[in-house]
Amino acid sequence: xxxxxxxxxxxxxxxxxxxxxxxxxxxxxxxxxxxxxxxxxxxxxxxxxxxxxxxxxxxxxxxxxxxxxxxxxxxxxxxxxxxxxxxxxxxxxxxxxxxxxxxxxxxxxxxxxxxxxxxxxxxxxxxxxxxxxxxxxxxxxxxxxxxxxxxxxxxxxxxxxxxxxxxxxxxxxxxxxxxxxxxxxxxxxxxxxxxxxxxxxxxxxxxxxxxxxxxxxxxxxxxxxxxxxxxxxxxxxxxxxxxxxxxxxxx
Length: 251
Ligand SMILES: [Zn+2]
Known about the structure:
- There is one protein chain.
- The protein contains 11 helices and 8 strands.
- The protein is of the alpha/beta class.
- An 8-stranded mixed β-sheet has the order 3-2-1-4-5-6-7-8, with helices on both faces.
- The radius of gyration is 17 Å and the shape is globular.
- Zinc ion binds next to helix 8.
């Protein structure tokens, strides 16, 4: 790290749990953020400010006026622009020394595989089950840690699936595909603005801990926030031995 980096990241380096080695690992890392909306905005801002070396931001949407209530990567001037263009501009202004890769697409198929394979950590900041399950399958296939977040109305949830570890549960173990989980869209149900910030920032925290190799990851634990009562709950969950996603690829 050069002198300017030592200054920029000094408050991380001062933490013995991170230190120079942890910050160097963060600076050398490549992180994939799927979704540049309510969760991806705060997550990407913290990952960029903390110096993640290469930040890949993937989103197929354009900024809409209704996004600005919570999607803090974007400004009034970004309306109708691709979210990744707007996001890249904000992240570059925040930290010009990191590399930002802006992918204007809903990642799927081979493109999703390719990006997951190259990433050190993947953040699922999307808003639909189809993408969540596709990202999980790719993370299982390439054994990449997945930091998952969701926010709707006043309810948030976060968990980490460290698929590098043998026997670690995957997203599908917790939320099996095809179960009659009602897909709630914030376009219909609404979402409390700071809730997306709390969940997205928590995802960034878990990603940085995984990269720096410090603390205890949120693995096998689902963190639930009721922002209306401002109460957190933690639910432990095991791997599903009959999970159709992680069972077949496990050794
Ligand atoms: Zn599984």
